[in-house]
Amino acid sequence: MSEIEGKCAGKKYNDGFKKTILDLYQAGNSVKDLSSEYGIWEVTIYKWVKAFTPISSEEGSLTPEELAEIQKENLRLKQELDILKKAMAIFAKK
To answer: Which of 7, 9, 25, 93 is in the most buried spot, having the most CB atoms within 10 Å?
Structure first.
């Protein structure tokens, strides 16, 4: 069996499994070793590292996924605020 056949293309992994792999990576295991042992593409592991590694600031830390959610919510709230401002302007004229 070739290395490509050994890897599961399109396989879905739950967050618990991903975090376990990341814990092993952070404990010093190489991506290459984890890839070989668990049958996961190295690129996939690197994507998980990027997605689950917190972005630190003075206020705390967020993962890129959490940051994207906050940005999405912020955009939605700005749009709602713009709508409310326009509505207030319309009612103020009356």
So the answer is: 25
Rounded to two decimals, the pTM is 0.56
Per residue in 16-57, pLDDT tens?
Answer: 999 999 999 999 999 999 999 999 999 999 999 988 887 777
Cβ burial of 45 (10 Å; 0-12, 13-18, 19+) is buried
SS3 string, the chain, reads CCHHHHCCCCCCCCHHHHHHHHHHHHCCCCHHHHHHHHCCCHHHHHHHHHHHCCEECCCCEECHHHHHHHHHHHHHHHHHHHHHHHHHHHHHHC
